[in-house]
Structure formats: structure tokens, C-alpha cells
Write a structure and sequence with these properties.
The complex is a heterodimer. Chain A is mostly helical. Chain A has helices spanning about 15-45, 45-50, 65-70, 80-85, 90-95, 110-140, 145-155, 165-175, 180-205, 210-215, 220-250, 255-260, 265-275, 280-310; strands at about 70-75, 100-105. In chain A, strands 1-2 form a two-stranded antiparallel ribbon. The longest helix of chain A has about 30 residues, at about 110-140. In chain B, helix 2 (about 90-100) packs across helix 3 and helix 2 runs parallel beside helix 4. Classes of the chains: A mainly alpha, B alpha+beta. The complex binds adenosine-5'-triphosphate and magnesium ion. Chain A: Belongs to the binding-protein-dependent transport system permease family.
């Protein structure tokens, strides 16, 4: 950040203009966030409320959607349910009230865990590899550096799905089909090019003198990297990690193609919620809400870095 | 504390020669200044001494030990960078203490040493501040603190005052010299500012295009420039250089410049007739109606106590530093007279000074200085 602020080239906007601008921003935010609020609300509606017309804005919240999401249920007659012992848990009660009996847990927890493991696993790996590679490209004389950087970028030019079939066959052959490690490796491979490019930009911006100062101050290059370069690259690393996570978290096509049961993530799973429950919108909405949460939390946690990072170092110094 | 010896140091970047066959000795406790125009290889030389760059060939000896290919971290040399390179993610205290932490020193001792360094530099009140909000003078002091805290064998400073405004530069210049007088640590200081070099250095090395043209005390460099480059680079205005064609004989204390016989220190070598250059400082030029070397006043520059009078002659432009009350008018024809014992003579082809009585004693001017 510069110590010197350039004088403002324009006069301060009037209070009215400011308020109008704020109103416009709020209006846009509401429009943009409405679908998300709608999904969030639907997750807490009953099935009847979810499809009511005109749509209900005020409704009695219920956890039916979440119970449906997390369990497998069967429909039973009223008489059969009456004969059963009273429900032991609140979720059983919610099911019974709708003439349903819980047969067991659904697979959503596994899918969700898969999403977390594969999403964060590939993000960490891509960011880690990307940071090291970017540092190398930025600081050392790598033979054919420009060509290599272009090659790395070129892996990103083709839509990844264009190579889906060869990858499918390769994965079958290598035993990576339907494994978490296979998905982590695949997403890492896709993300690492982006990571190298983004991070090289950030690391180029960090003056070499900092490391050199550390070198003459008695540190090895690795220590200088850890203690001086990394702390200054956090902004870039955070921004890169968010981009990587967003890609692997949302990825649908590869996961659909390369998994069957073990390594399936949330995106290909969510449509199945519709299928199983016969258009059970609250359950779908509950699944979507749950799916959105980690990325929201992650982004909010890193937003301090993100705001500076997304400008790609333009505001540094 | 250490003596630094540089032998036949050479550095090429992909065929571009940045430093050429450098030789010099920096005695223990000396404040050594490397002076030269931009791009002449000062930084590269300094970085090779510090171990941040490896030489293509040559040797660097630190107190007699060959460190040419040792890592920077093993040389015990502190480096002050032009833009200070303070770690932005650490506060002042951690910045200064950083070199000590690498040695595995105990926390209490680090604290004590950091506070001592801060006291010397009078920045104790800044210790817990982040470095980002500091003024450039204070940043400079923190950078110096980080260098002195280790009590290294030698300090390398790459244009450490370059980022300061001129007022702050004068202040820090004084502080740097004061610091050196207290610590007496061997210091190599790079600058392209001759005033800085003259006022700070015990010894000055003047560089041009990767070559060290001359090294010696500021007085030697000023009074007995070893080459036309040094004569022209040092001094403001620089030494006057007049071209003429003549030969030199050890017995003859004069040369013929056009119509005029001009007295010079007795040559110590014979030189056949060729193109030569006569060098004389503006303060050793006088106007004299009787003089045979004639010229025309081109302009005057009033400086308060003195004035610089520019005279065009057939042998080149000559500037004279005269008392401010001497009356001259532009366009006036004048005669020029030079102080004979302070004249340098150079070979025009090689640019090197020719040995004369000027070079007889190690420091002939020390007492004769006016
Ligand atoms: N890493 C490098 N690769 C290629 N050329 C370089 C490198 N470092 C320096 N040079 C070249 O070597 C020459 C000397 O550079 P150096 O930085 O030593 O000059 P300097 O005297 O410090 O100049 P300045 O006053 O501008 O700092 C310059 O022409 C520069 O372009
Ligand atoms: Mg330099």
C-alpha cells in the first residue's frame, strides 16, 4: 500500500447521490441474493408450503426437508404406524407425522464428506504445488521458463471435459475410478495451472530484496521462503485457494462420469434427491443449503485477503 | 571487523560484462565508497561481496579467508538495501531482531541487543510500531538497526540514502558517518552521488562500465585523477579538459597548448608527440590579460561567494571558479592562467593519466591544499 494518497480528482459526491448509490447497491444485492434466500427458506418449509401458490413468504418452519435429506423413509399405513412403539427421536416423529417410517440414514453424509475431502484436498494440493512452482518460476532461471509457463496455461485452454473419455479409461486401468484420491488428483491437475499462474503474479510482486535480506541475515533459502515470502504471499494464496475450491466444489461432469458410489460428491448427488422423494423440494433445498455452507464460510473466512487478492496485486506497494 | 580483498573479480550476465577485472583492498575499519554512474556495476560488485551473486571469475577474501563461493548466510556480512527491504509483516522490533533469531540466540539476549541497537539509532520509541507507517528516515534507521544488531564483520550499503529527500539525506549522511566512527566497522557503501562519496568515504573507488578506474582517498581521487573519466566525473563543475598535441620529456615542466606554453608538474616519463589532454580544476584557473591561452567569456554563474565563469577556447570549454567580485562580461576576450603544480596530463587515446611530479608523494597535497 502506498503511503501517499493521490488527491481525489473529483469532488466529493453529494449526500443525496451517495444515498442513491447505496440504494442501488442494496437493491442489486437483494436481487442477487434472492434465489439463495428462496432456497434457504424452502429448506425449512413443508412440502405443501413449498409448492403453494401464491408462494408463501410467511410459513411455519419445519425440519422435514432436512429429515428427508438425511434419511431413507418408507410410506406406511396409518394403522401400521399406530401399532409401532412411540418415536424415540424428534426426527422419527417428524417422519411419522407424515405416515413415513425411517428405514435408515441416506447417503448424503458420505456425499458431503466426499465433497469436503475432495474439494479441500485438491485445493490444498493445488495451492501447495502451485506456490512452489510459482516461486521457482519467479525466482530462479528455469530453462525454457516462458515455454513451460505457456504449456502450463495451455492445459487449461481446452475444456477439461474434452478429455473425459481418455481419463475415464485411464482411471479404470489405473484403479483410480471411483476413488477419492483419483478425484483429488484430477481436480488438482486441473487447478494447478491456474494456481501457478495466479501465484506467479503475486510472488513476482514481492521484491526479491526481502529474501536476499533474509539470506544475508543468516537464513537458508527455504527458511527465507517460509518466513519472508509465504507471509507476504498469503493474500495471493488465499485468493488462489478460493478459486481452486470453487472449481472443485462445484465440479459436476467429471464426478458424474468417474464415480459410481464411493467417491461421489454433492453436485451429482443433489439431482437424486429429487428422484428419490418424487419432487421433494424442501429436501433438495436442504441439500443445496448444506452444499453452499462450506464455501460461504471459507470465503467469508478469507474475505479480508480476497478483497486485496482479487485485484491481482494491483494495489500492492 | 574485517579486511575485504577483491582480486580479479569478474561478472558477466549472459555475455554482458557487468564487472571487469576488479581489484581493490578495503582495509579493516574503513568506510569504503563505490562511486560511479548508473549501470556501472556497483551493485553487482557489492552483491558479490555479500554473496548474493556469484562471480564469473576472481576471488573475494574476507580477513584472508576465501569466501568467493560461500553462501551469503555464512559470510557474516550485513546488507542495507536501497529500498530498505523491511519485512512488512513484522513490526520494528521483530525486523531488527530477525538476524539474531536465525542464530538461535536466547530471547532475552535478542531483546537486549535489539534495544541496544535501537538506542544507538534513537528509535527506541518506535520498537513496537509496524514498519508500514514509518517515515523514510525512520525506515532507514530500522534497516541500519537490522544491520548493526548482529555486529557483523562488515556492512554493505547499496545507495541507502537514495530513497530519501535531500534534507533527510544530509541528516542521515551525518548519522551514518557518526555511526561508523562509533562502531568502526568495515563498510562498503555504494552511491552515484559524488558529494555523498566525498563526505562519507575514507576511500573511494570510482567505477565506469564495470571497471574500477581509481581507488584512493577522496583527496587523491580529486587531486590526482587516474583517468579522464574520473577527472570528468568528480567535481562540480568537473575538471577542465583541454586537448592539445605535444610530447613530454622528464626534464621539461611545460607543454605547448596551441600558442601558449603552459607549466605542468615535471613529467616522470617521456611521451612521444601525440594527442594529449590537459586537466585543470576550475579553482586553479585565473583570468590574466597577459596569458597566451586566449578565449571568450561564454557565460557566468553566480554562486554567492564564488562564480563560475565559462570561457570557450580553441582547445575546449574551460570553467574558472573566481571570486564573486571579479567583473567579467559575456563576449569579453580573456587570457587563462593555470596553477602549474596542480595540473594533470592524460593520454587522449587511453584516457589514462601520465605520471608527473603530481604523483611523486603518496599525499603531496595534504599540506599544500588551498
Ligand atoms: N541479473 C542481471 N541480469 C542481467 N544483467 C544484469 C543483472 N544485474 C545487473 N545487470 C546489468 O549489469 C550492469 C550493472 O548493474 P548494477 O546493478 O551493478 O549497476 P549499478 O552501478 O548498481 O547501477 P545503479 O546506479 O543503476 O544501481 C547493468 O547494465 C545491469 O543492466
Ligand atoms: Mg545499483
Amino acid at each position: 500500500m502506498s503511503d501517499v494518497h493521490a488527491p481525489r480528482p473529483f469532488s466529493e459526491p453529494s449526500p443525496l447521490a451517495r444515498r442513491l448509490a447505496a440504494a442501488a447497491v442494496v437493491l442489486y444485492a437483494v436481487i442477487a441474493i434472492l434465489p439463495l434466500l428462496w432456497i434457504g427458506a424452502t429448506a425449512f418449509k413443508s412440502q405443501a408450503d413449498a409448492i403453494a401458490y401464491p408462494p408463501k413468504i410467511l410459513f411455519t418452519p419445519t425440519l422435514e426437508g432436512f429429515v428427508d435429506l438425511f434419511t431413507v423413509q418408507t410410506h406406511q399405513s396409518h394403522d401400521f404406524i399406530a401399532k409401532l412403539p412411540p418415536p424415540a427421536t424428534w426426527w422419527e416423529k417428524i417422519a411419522r407425522d407424515r405416515d413415513m417410517v425411517i428405514a435408515g440414514p441416506s447417503r448424503v453424509v458420505e456425499r458431503f464428506l466426499n465433497s469436503l475431502i475432495i474439494g479441500f484436498g485438491s485445493t490444498i494440493l493445488a495451492t501447495f504445488l502451485g506456490t512452489l512452482a510459482a516461486y521457482g518460476f519467479s525466482r530462479f532461471r528455469v530453462p525454457l521458463a516462458d515455454d513451460l509457463m505457456f504449456f502450463i496455461l495451455s492445459t487449461r485452454m481446452m475444456p477439461p471435459i474434452a478429455v473425459a473419455v481418455p481419463i475415464y479409461m485411464m482411471y479404470r486401468w489405473l484403479g483410480l475410478y471411483d476413488t477419492r484420491i483419483g478425484m483429488i488428483l484430477l481436480y488438482t491437475a486441473v487447478n494447478v495451472s491456474l494456481a501457478v499462474w495466479l501465484l506467479k503474479g503475486f510472488i513476482d510482486e514481492i521484491p526479491r530484496e526481502y529474501e536476499e535480506a533474509a539470506l544475508v541475515d543468516g537464513y537458508t533459502r527455504l527458511q527465507a521462503f517460509r518466513k519472508v515470502v509465504l507471509p507476504q504471499a498469503v493474500t495471493g494464496i488465499a485468493a488462489t485457494a478460493i478459486f481452486c475450491l470453487i472449481f472443485s466444489w462445484n465440479e459436476y461432469a467429471f464426478n458424474l462420469l468417474l464415480t459410481s458410489s464411493e467417491a461421489q460428491t454433492m453436485p451429482p448427488f443433489i439431482p437424486f434427491i429429487i428422484g428419490e422423494g418424487g419432487q421433494n423440494w424442501p429436501a433438495v433445498a436442504a441439500g443445496t443449503t448444506l452444499f453452499l455452507l462450506p464455501i460461504v464460510v471459507f470465503t467469508i473466512a478469507l474475505r479480508k485477503h480476497l478483497l486485496r487478492g482479487i485485484t491481482f496485486g494491483a494495489v500492492r506497494k | 571487523m574485517a579486511e575485504i580483498r577483491v582480486e580479479h573479480l569478474h561478472k558477466a550476465f549472459h555475455g554482458f560484462v557487468a564487472v571487469q577485472n576488479s581489484n581493490f583492498v578495503i582495509e579493516d575499519r574503513t568506510f569504503f565508497v563505490m562511486l560511479g554512474p548508473s549501470g556501472c556495476g556497483k551493485t553487482t560488485t557489492l552483491r558479490m561481496i555479500a554473496g548474493l551473486e556469484l562471480p564469473t571469475s576472481g576471488r573475494i577474501l574476507l580477513d584472508g579467508a576465501d569466501v568467493t563461493f560461500k553462501r551469503a548466510s555464512e559470510r557474516d556480512i550485513a546488507f542495507v538495501f536501497q529500498l530498505f527491504a523491511l519485512y512488512p509483516h513484522m513490526n520494528v522490533r521483530r525486523n531488527i531482531g530477525f538476524p539474531l533469531v536465525s542464530t538461535g540466540m536466547k530471547r532475552a539476549e535478542v531483546k537486549a541487543r535489539v534495544e541496544e541497537a535501537a538506542r544507538i539509532l534513537r528509535i527506541t520509541d518506535l520498537l513496537d510500531r509496524p514498519v508500514s507507517g514509518l517515515s523514510s528516515g525512520d525506515r532507514q534507521r530500522v534497516a541500519l538497526g537490522r544491520a548493526i544488531v548482529r555486529r557483523p564483520m562488515a556492512f554493505m550499503m547499496d545507495e541507502p540514502l537514495g530513497a530519501l529527500d535531500s534534507e533527510m539525506r544530509d541528516v542521515m549522511c551525518g548519522e551514518l558517518r557518526g555511526l561508523h566512527d562509533r562502531l568502526k566497522a568495515t563498510t562498503v557503501y555504494v552511491t552515484h552521488d559524488q558529494t555523498e562519496a566525498m563526505s562519507l568515504g575514507d576511500k573511494i573507488a570510482v567505477m565506469s562500465h564495470g571497471v574500477i578506474e581509481q581507488w584512493g582517498t577522496p583527496r587523491e581521487v580529486y587531486d590526482r585523477p587516474a583517468s579522464v573519466f574520473v577527472a570528468d566525473f568528480i567535481g562540480s563543475p568537473p575538471m577542465n579538459l583541454l586537448t592539445f598535441h605535444d610530447g613530454l620529456q622528464p626534464g621539461r615542466g611545460s607543454v605547448r597548448v596551441g600558442e601558449a606554453d603552459i607549466g605542468i608538474p615535471a613529467p616522470r616519463e617521456a611521451v612521444t608527440k601525440r594527442d594529449l589532454i590537459l586537466g585543470v580544476r576550475p579553482e586553479h584557473v585565473r583570468l590574466s590579460d597577459a596569458a597566451r591561452l586566449r578565449g571568450e567569456v561564454f557565460g557566468t554563474e553566480y554562486l554567492g561567494t564564488t562564480q563560475i565563469v565559462t570561457v570557450t577556447t580553441p582547445h575546449g570549454v574551460t570553467r574558472a571558479r573566481l571570486a564573486a567580485n571579479v567583473k567579467v562580461s559575456i563576449g569579453e576576450a580573456v587570457g587563462l592562467e593555470f596553477r602549474p603544480d596542480r595540473i594533470s596530463v592524460f593520454d587522449a587515446a587511453s584516457g589514462q593519466a601520465i605520471r608527473t611530479a603530481l604523483h611523486d608523494h603518496p599525499h603531496p597535497m595534504e599540506h599544500a591544499h588551498v
